């Protein structure tokens, strides 16, 4: 990060840290910059400036150290710099035959003055002394102190760019926020004959937003982004540029979610909540030989590539204008480098819970201007079952069935629970749960245990910690509407003689009676399928809601069977996952 800042310091000597399009009320152009980075959690602060001889100085000083010691060190450094300059000058005169000796440079006077012009006392600690707007005097040179100026630490474009699909850069900054940064997009110049001025490698587009959607006219051309970090207080740091590694490619045409976007053009009002649940197919599973040859042999290989699928996913999710998005099978790298930056640009904050034994997990996103995060209560089922007193009775019952117990404890399934509060009505809180249950067709008994743990944990959060707050429980439950897990969730109980207790044969029979206190309803009903692959289709995904507190305003229709089977099954060139997103608008009763 500081290497970038050092080069910026050299290029910006004497220039103001003002917005690139004017304004900002910054220091006069003649004044140099002294850049201070001071973070309370770190013991030292850093100071960077460029001496009149052009040499850059970078100092690390204890934050608690008296200012006088730091100024003395600056004076010593400055004297060395002047001394070197003097030696060069003497050598040049000797080679040119000039007479006279160069004067030995004296140690320059070094003082720090506050913004109002008063000298800062030398006993003041560094952390308090080096304030934004202060002026550092080194001999005759003057430096305007910029404390914690905005700086970009990372700027990255996606590897794959499709016409008609949003390009969402990853922007990481210190002392800045992406929403306050300035963005300028450029396109590559077409070869000679295109009618544009010769010699211009890049042509600026009209776009000045964080997210840029290239048109078909840009197919075959690379993109460049110039980003200037800002902090929302009219302070701007040095700009960075990044060029795309590949040109814009043609998009796939119509996608399965295009018609659904007609229902979700706008964010719903503050009295309503649009929820989405979606298993997005982890790259760690899509890129196996088994997936390519057995599970999805009908899918074009390039359409299984994560870069291609991410283009579709980002457009699909952004177009739903959701307030809550619960995702399953989210690769950690996909969350960090792709989804979180992209959805952040559309006003959504993301939370991630990884499965410890896998590289994928759960992600929950919530709209920032509608909700704030009060607390998180994520668990791994196996760990919680044996370590939390809450599940002691269930754990003792399970111990009677060692074969089943072993399988339950081997699973890495997790539960993500987030408590959100309305930004406009603090009395309105939500307990949002997200999970992905064990997948095996004969694992109904395992899923029942996992759901029992989940419901007890949700009860603890939504009844004990936050009494009587509504629950929204989303996920890929790997359970059809005829399953024990679905029956347990929706009815509030499961009998000990339910057939799912012997889902893997008599040797793994596990009979127990379970119950929970919630009245939960599948908000999107029981669709014919939410998962459609070559060898299977069925309803596995649900958005369960607290029917005592919430009601359904509308369910966004699923794609038609014709759309789903256009390319035989899912995923396809027009659909990024083997599952289908569930979307509904809810409102408080």
TrEMBL record:
Domain 2',5'-phosphodiesterase 12-like N-terminal: residue ranges: 149-249
InterPro entries per record: CCR4/nocturin_mRNA_transcr, Endo/exonu/phosph_ase_sf, Endo/exonuclease/phosphatase, PDE12-like_N
This protein's GO CC annotations: mitochondrial matrix
GO biological process: mRNA processing; nuclear-transcribed mRNA catabolic process, deadenylation-dependent decay
Annotated stretches, region: Disordered: 1-30
Cofactor: Mg(2+)
Superkingdom, natural source: Eukaryota
Sequence ranges assigned to domain Endonuclease/exonuclease/phosphatase in this UniProt record: 277-579
Gene3D superfamilies registered for this protein in UniProt: Endonuclease/exonuclease/phosphatase (3.60.10.10)
Keywords, ordered alphabetically: Exonuclease, Hydrolase, Magnesium, Metal-binding, Mitochondrion, mRNA processing, Nuclease, Phosphoprotein, Transit peptide
Annotated GO MF terms: metal ion binding; poly(A)-specific ribonuclease activity
Subcellular location: Mitochondrion matrix
Entry-linked Pfam families: Exo_endo_phos, PDE12-like_N
Family: Belongs to the CCR4/nocturin family.
Name of this protein: 2',5'-phosphodiesterase 12
